[in-house]
Automatic annotation (TrEMBL):
The keyword Signal applies. InterPro entries: Cupredoxin, Phytocyanin-like, Phytocyanin_dom. It comes from Kalanchoe fedtschenkoi (Lavender scallops). Its main location: membrane. Keywords: Copper, Disulfide bond, Electron transport, Glycoprotein, Membrane, Metal-binding, Signal, Transmembrane, Transmembrane helix, Transport. One of its GO terms (biological process) is response to symbiotic fungus. It holds the Pfam family Cu_bind_like. It comes from the Eukaryota. Residues 25-125 form the Phytocyanin domain. The keyword Electron transport applies. This is Phytocyanin domain-containing protein. Gene3D superfamilies: Cupredoxins - blue copper proteins. It is a single-pass type I membrane protein. GO terms for molecular function: electron transfer activity; metal ion binding.
Length: 174
């Protein structure tokens, strides 16, 4: 019976803690200025830490601008590729799914060339495990290993926290 209870408790812990500790952020490009001309997006991006799982939101009056995701050379030249379709909703969410350099520009008129409406960012990989605050017992280390494998890339800090908590709890209830 104890085993049953502790398994239920561990499951509840997992469900309760993992989503709450997810660290994904949402960046409103340009903050209050939004996506527009005459704004320094390089200055805006400077010092910000973009990570896989975060979201960029381009906000602008629908029809006034658009958003193309481009490569580095198109970015330099301010030319959106003719075969790609821009985002045009005025509230465009882009999930940063992979690490690396990402380039965006507005394809309306000369907003990119003259208006400087272009953004380049570097997306970092998701945060990997940092040292857990509790000294791990051999058992909780194996729990950590288990959880990082099974929960896979779900941010490993919460996974480790959950594993430590779960380990403590199981030890107590057994
Ligand atoms: Cu524009």
């Amino acid at each position: 019976m104890a085993r049953c209870h502790s398994l239920v408790a561990v499951s509840i812990l997992l469900v309760a803690l993992v989503p709450a500790t997810s660290m994904a952020k949402e960046f409103i490009v340009g903050d209050d200025a939004g996506w527009t001309i005459g704004f320094n997006y390089q200055a805006w991006a400077q010092g910000k830490e973009f990570r896989v799982g975060d979201t960029l939101v381009f906000k602008y009056p629908e029809g006034a601008h658009n958003v193309y995701k481009v490569n580095g050379s198109d970015f330099q030249a301010c030319t959106p590729p003719s075969d790609s379709i821009p985002l045009t909703s005025g509230n465009d969410h882009i999930l940063l799914a992979t690490a690396g350099r990402k380039w965006y520009l507005c394809g309306v008129g000369e907003h990119c060339e003259i208006g400087g409406q272009k953004l380049v960012i570097t997306v970092q990989p998701q945060l990997q495990s940092e040292a857990p605050s509790l000294a791990p017992s051999p058992w909780s280390q194996s729990m950590n290993a288990y959880y990082s494998n099974s929960v896979e890339k779900m941010s490993s800090i919460p996974a480790m926290a959950v594993a430590s908590l779960a380990a403590t709890l199981v030890t107590l209830t057994f």
